[in-house]
Structure formats: C-alpha cells, structure tokens
Amino acid sequence: MTQEKRTDGQTKAGITIIPVTPLRQNCTLLWCEATRDAAIIDPGGDVPLIKTTIEKAGVTVRRIWLTHGHIDHVGGAAELRDALKVPIEGPHIADKFLLDHVVESGRGYGMTGMRNFAPDRWLEEGHRLEIGELAFDVLHCPGHSPGSVVFFNREMGFAHVGDVLFNGSIGRTDLPGGNHATLIKSITDKLLPLGDDVAFICGHGPGSSIGHERKSNPFLTGGM
What domains, with CATH codes, occur in the chain? Predict the structure, then answer.
C-alpha cells in the first residue's frame, strides 16, 4: 500500500507499507518527496521483499528506524543494515534485552537467519530524527515493551506508533516487559495530546487517527 502525506497542497512524504513475517507486520518505507531520501521502519524480516520494494520506489534509504525490539519488528534489521550500509536508530535502550535475544525469539516463531544486534543509536524522549526535509520527534511510550518509541511529524500531523496503539485496540501487554497500566498512561499522556487530526500507521493492520481512537477505541473509552 502506497500513500502520500501533504501539507499546504505540497506532497511532503511517500509511504509504502510492506507486510512482513508470518505475523504480517507493517514494515514501512517512508521517504521525503523533495530529496527521495528514505527510512525503513521496523524491518522484521523478508529482507529480499523489502529490498525489492525500495528499488521499485526509486528512493535511497539512509536510516533504519525501530519502534521496539519484538522479533517481527527487528528480525531483518541486522541483515538490512549490512546490505544497505546504513545505521539503525532505536528503539529505547530499555528494549536491549529483546535485541540481545533475537535469534532465540525468532526460533520460537520458526524464523531463521536472524541475528542479535545493537543499534547504532539508542533513542530517547526528545530526540529528533531527520530524513531529507522531514523531521520526526521521538516519544518514549513504554507498556507494550519497555523501550517502545513513537515517531511524530508535527508538520504533516502524522505518526508511526509501532505496537503502542492500533485501530480499535492497543498493543499486547502479556509479553516480557509489558504492562497494561503503563501502556494506557503512554497513550493518554503522549499520544492523545498530539491532536485528533493526527493520522498514524501502526505495527499491524490498518492505520487510524488519534481522534477516531479517542472516541471509539474500547480500551480508551472504558469499554474494555
């Protein structure tokens, strides 16, 4: 699926979602239309497919960004870093225990050929990421995992939230390091204040907007 994000009538960014791994995780190719520089967000696996998608888009990947350390989001990161010779940024260092056990986690899902790794840069609240002329603020949003981060572009009113928030649901909290109360606090304190018009891509399934989830998400309205 390919999308465009516009501001003041100008196309600012292109986005292609690449479902990867048996868990159909939304690996995201995001690029600046002005420069054709790109970032890959959460390359969980199926690296040949990701590379083919990059080639078809005609963009140059400069960075790999990780929202958190779960296997379906990071399984192909080390291989892709080697292939593209670009740095990995993220997640927060609280997810180091997950990146230290990528091979073991992959084995549990029948996923092979993956490597434990460390990013070139751990991300923290307040960090700023840039790709071409696009800039994203980093929000630390623990709960699904201790080191989950969200990428927010204020100009476009757009965020990539990983597995923190979904269309009609929220991230699992029954995995190691997960905490339901912490996740709800992250969503309430960090995501809802971004504004109802903010659209987001999530780690699985269709995206949504902050306003839609504020009004209808049963985990936020008290329905669950």
Answer: 2-221 (3.60.15.10)
List, in order, residues 6 or more apart from 80 with CB less than 8 Å away.
Answer: 40, 43, 47, 50, 51, 64
The DSSP annotation for 156-203 comes to TTEEE-TTSEETTEE---SSTT--HHHHHHHIIIIIGGG-TT-EEE-S
Closest CA to 75 of 51, 106, 110: 106
Q: Going by DSSP bridges, is the β-strand pair 88-89/60-65 parallel, antiparallel, or unpaired?
A: parallel
pTM (global) more than 0.85: yes
> What pLDDT, in 10s, does the model give residues 138-158?
999 999 999 999 999 999 999
By three-state DSSP, how is residue 89 classified? strand
Rounded Cα gap, residues 162 and 164, in angstroms: 6
The tens digit of pLDDT for each residue in 159-178 reads 999 999 999 999 999 999 99
Q: Is the bond preceding residue 91 a cis peptide, omega within 30 degrees?
A: yes
What SS3 class is residue 59? coil
pLDDT digits (tens, 9 = 90+) for 92-103: 999 999 999 999
Rounded-to-integer distance, Cα 192 and Cα 200, Å = 12
Q: Any residues with CB less than 8 A from the CB of 212 and at least 6 apart, and which?
A: 167
* Closest by Cα among 69, 5, 70 to 207: 5
* Tokens found for residue 198: 């903010």
